[in-house]
Request: fold
Amino acid sequence: MVPGRFVRYVALDEDAAGTGYPFDLPVVDGLRRAWLTLGPGVTFLVGENGSGKSTLVEGIAVAAGFNAEGGSRSFRFATRSSESSLGRALRVGRAPGRERTSFFLRAESYYNVATELENIGGGVLDGYGGVSPHDRSHGESFLDLLTHRFHPRGLYLLDEPEAALSTRGCIRALRRIDELVRGGSQFLVATHSPVLLAVPGARILEIGDDGSLTPVRYDDALPVRTTRAFLADPGRHV
Reply:
């Protein structure tokens, strides 16, 4: 058993795949050519809008047994179905051993998770800082989640967690993710944040125009290159 590795790979089952969206996304074409392999620690997915990174994380979450709108595997609520059908065509290869806890954070539907937490009631909010996420700002509720609900030896799938965070909030999230990785957790994260990508030892996969998943260094990752180019000469981009 490798510490911090609970999922080994994700593969596309062509027999279960359909046509049109989401099976025409670049990243799905990439999966047709090569499996997505996950090591211990953090794997980041980066790429332009429309490359399919968020759809892929959502599909992996569904294939791994998570609720499509987010939460733990015990969440089974549904508000408005918006997930793609990709999850039914993915196979998730497990590693030996079992994670202590797990969570799927889908930034766009975390409001629905917060409502479900209130509906469950009881002591469930103790695991989220003792306060309903609806009683905190969006960014504060995300940081509460990372601080109080996420624990060592966990499996965490995050879709653009920076969506609600300030730059300082991203730095706090960076530190907490690093702490959890050192505690034996595994993360798969779709992000545009150059701050989050700085997790020490993280593996960064950039989705190309053809859907290929190419490992890149931090300095070469698209969000880092783009942000640095903008900050070097903001006026040139207006």
